[in-house]
Amino acid sequence: MPALCCNAKGTSLRPPVLVLAASLLKNIFFFVNCCPFCSFQTVFVRKNKAPKNPLSSFRWRGFRLEEYLIGQPLGKGCSAAVYEAAIPSPPDGQGSAQSSHLAGEGQQDRTAGEQPAAKPQQKEAFPLAIKMMWNISAGSSSEAILDAMGRELVPATQTALAGEYGAVSCRRKPVLRRKKLQPHPNIIQVIRAFTSSVPLLPGAFTDYPDVLPLSLNPRGIGHSRTLFLVMKNYPCTLRQYLRDSSPDARLSTMMILQLLEGVDHLVRHGVAHRDLKSDNILVEFDSAGCPWLVITDFGCCLADDSIGLRLPFTSSYVDRGGNGCLMAPEVITASPGPGTVINYSKADAWAVGAIAYEILGLANPFYGHGDSTLESRSYREDQLPSLPDRVPPEVRQVIKLLLQRDPDKRLSARVAANVLHLSLWGESVLASKTLKPDQMVAWLLCQSAATLLLDGLVDKSRVETKMKMCFFANLDYEDLWAAIFLLLASRNRSG
């Protein structure tokens, strides 16, 4: 196989790629008569990782607000403000930067005016984003803050909390009963989390004066200390991207697929986001210009080890999540009382179905747009707006089934994702009128080997490669065949 040993530039292929591909081939042929899907998962589950941590070279830095250079505000929501940020490299290469521009320095002397914003020459000067939570009722102790805002830490990395009190410690009590969410390409990573005094940042008096502490605003009602989350700085939100761009049908399908993969990952870990909307989805672009979608903002999530995805709804005071417009029917119509339980296992998948309208260039039918607005509490499936003819029939069918009122009839995120995977890359195997399991295994074998080689030869940061890795890492016999039958039936009806 000499042609597979060099790329277009003549660079030798790294041995691990061939070793991994050979290992996959060996495993598949060994298990072909029993459980081939386990073999695919064994290889791909460890390779399906989130993008590189932008603070990976700063192992024990970034746990104090004073270390960061704070730039302009990126946005604000109902509970936090987000700013661009960076950790400057000290000239002598040692210790933390002590520049007077760093956030937090001299804040006690700036009650009359705001900290001046840094003005970088390039956007790349701020690779990070800092989310400052607004602390109105959690008190000023770190323990109380973390207890009150612990849901924001669900997507935190293992090292994110190493210095949450301003000093590194190996012994730390768990935050609530927070589930541990493994990294995923379509889920945000919180790479640093710590508590600190609230600084006076650019735009504070204009955008959120009421939540400032008394030391900064005599009329403020906020506490003097709060939680800060550090993440990668993304170019825009999905809403912003769609405002200026109109992705074609294939690109739109790829974007919907990414959201389904992210939601499936959450469900597998017993987490419900409960606030999915285009403002809570961030976008960057891979080397081919394909939008890479990342689900963020976990402040409303359900991530409790003791109850999983089934929330006892005993009274109206129980929090059902945020964004009532995109709250699934089984959630919004639930009546509180003894024995009532809300099952969130397919609630986020329903929200993806609604967001898919926006991705495909239409108005979200569940937002306020005049008389045509639908309410998740009362809509009928036949009231859903028709999708454009350019949308493939299988994509239209997936969206229709994601928006079924009855969760028992609704597609799971996994099956829906499988349909889109097959739609994008499975034409060769679906062309057979008498598809058999051994044909499917052979196709999976070829696709998986090609994915491994592309990952080593072309670019590890391609959306297409990452999505194929998600597909192989989560293969399940029943889910895959359910997707195949659904896709073939959809095509037969449209044909």
UniProtKB/TrEMBL annotation:
GO terms for biological process: cellular response to hypoxia; cellular response to oxidative stress; cellular response to toxic substance; dopamine secretion; establishment of protein localization to mitochondrion; hemopoiesis; maintenance of protein location in mitochondrion; mitochondrion organization. It catalyses: L-seryl-[protein] + ATP = O-phospho-L-seryl-[protein] + ADP + H(+); L-threonyl-[protein] + ATP = O-phospho-L-threonyl-[protein] + ADP + H(+). GO terms for cellular component: astrocyte projection; axon; cell body; chromatin; cytoskeleton; cytosol; endoplasmic reticulum; mitochondrial inner membrane. Its cofactor is Mg(2+). The keyword Ribonucleoprotein does not apply. Keywords: ATP-binding, Autophagy, Cytoplasm, Kinase, Magnesium, Membrane, Metal-binding, Mitochondrion, Mitochondrion inner membrane, Mitochondrion outer membrane, Nucleotide-binding, Phosphoprotein, Serine/threonine-protein kinase, Transferase, Transit peptide, Transmembrane, Transmembrane helix. One of its GO terms (molecular function) is magnesium ion binding. Residues 90-120 are annotated as: Disordered. PANTHER family: SERINE/THREONINE PROTEIN KINASE (PTHR22972), SERINE_THREONINE-PROTEIN KINASE PINK1, MITOCHONDRIAL (PTHR22972:SF7). Upon mitochondrial depolarization, it forms a supercomplex with TOM and TIM23 complexes. PINK1-TOM-TIM23 supercomplex formation requires PINK1 interaction with TOMM20 and TOMM70 and is critical for PINK1 stabilization at the outer mitochondrial membrane, kinase activation and downstream mitophagy. Upon mitochondrial depolarization, interacts with TIMM23; the interaction is required for PINK1 accumulation at the outer mitochondrial membrane, kinase activation by autophosphorylation and PRKN recruitement to mitochondria. Interacts with PRKN. Interacts with FBXO7. This is Serine/threonine-protein kinase PINK1, mitochondrial. The lineage of its organism: Eukaryota, Metazoa, Chordata, Craniata, Vertebrata.
